[in-house]
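User: Some background: our group keeps a shared notebook of sequences we're curious about, and every so often someone picks one and asks for a predicted structure to add to the entry. Today it's my turn. The entry only has the sequence so far, pasted here. Could you supply the structure so I can complete it?
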Amino acid sequence: MTTHLPILQVIIPLLAAPFCIFLRIPRLVGIFAILVSAAAFLVSCGLLQQVITAGTISYKLGGWPAPWGIEYRIDILNVYLLLLVSAMSTIVLVAAQTSIKKELPEDRHVFFYTSFLLCLTGLLGILATADAFNVFVFLEISALSTYTMIALGTDRRALTASYQYLIMGTIGATFIIIGVGLMYMMTGTLNMYDLAERLPEVNTSRTVLSAFGFFIVGVCLKLALFPLHLWLPNAYAFAPSIATAFLAATATKVAVYLLIRLVFSIFGIEFVVTVLPMQEIFMVLGLAGIFAASVSAIYQLNIKRLFAYSSVAQIGYMILGLAIGTKLGLVATLVHMFNHALMKAAVFLAIGGAVYRIHSAQLIHFAGLGRKMPLTMAAIVIGGLSLIGVPLTVGFVSKWYLVLALLENGWWPVAILVLMSSLLAVMYVWRTVEWIYFTPPRINIDDVTEAPLSQLIPIWILVLANIYFGLNTSLTVGLSKMAAESLYGIFGGVL
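Assistant: Of course. Here's the predicted structure to add to the notebook entry:
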């Protein structure tokens, strides 16, 4: 059984998703979804143990060796993300049953869980596969199910947000499949590692340059890199809170992984440096995203939109770490991918707990909730402190490694800008704290009580994880360093 863990990672949620339709009973489907996600998490743990002890796993589907057959290849980089995605989905699903009772009509619950498991399948498939066309297939599975989850929201604006995401997501997917097609035309293979061997022979051709350009733009659309982020704020704001928490914790991280895999495992560092000024492009777009999105967050009236713009800014930090072009810069990016998932899942689940009680995500309606929902509001505050980068939280670890990487590379002016950007995070987090604790209630909250225990438990698991991994970095930094060393070992040198 252990030899088949790579395919079980994807097959378990894929087969479980349509089975939800046959169960029909919403509560039963919810429990079933939790068990499926927990099984996926256990498979991820098994894969992590195998990779650490035995090295990279190559799994040949149907017994056909690559490049003739489809290969699943599990290394330290993608098993790190497999662990993250499956863990986040399991924790979020624990809070789902209570949360969606107030946010979705009962007849939509089964469809929500079905879409959720399909989205999980797509994200895990993107991480596991070593086939470029398979990446596109799993990308579309996750995207289509995401559009559905967003559209299931009862707010009419959820339909508009879903449609906007559909248009931009389709454009991104089209760019990606064009890039895959052009690479196949030049090399005759779709296996990523076979592509890496064949592309150097033709990498000066315009076709390969075009393929790289299409792929980069398509992936950047998917990861919501500024200025291609316009789909994200509305999608996060009007989706059901559970969907927002899951997507914020996983979807953009998987897209960043795809960008890293593209640069390091397919085209190679030397090609990226010599052909296009990717360092400069990523540095400018990363910094622009950090400042533009942080400023936008300050002026938001909807708390979910506020933290959605914060996500765009945090993606800027990840891209900036990648732009540094050193092992330490890549470590900073990988560490922040994990840490940001913990921050945003905690914050959005806590917001979901508040929405469960007051039926609104408007910041003005959060006035005075600090006294009525102390545990839920404290979770938002601690998540906000992580976003700022306060010591003893995971956010501090992320920014510490990012600043170290910048200084190591001699980019001290950029390091100063990163530290200055934290002041903008202080402003929008403080604005939230001010409404929660220091503003009289604007609506009747006399009957408001703490979020249900089924929501508080996963919320505080994530909050405590924000503190624990801020103090103990052996897992996050250790795996990130191993992944960075393995990626730089493929081609050597610095970006």
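Suggested note for the entry: The first strand starts at residue 57 and ends at 60. The first helix runs from residue 5 to 23.
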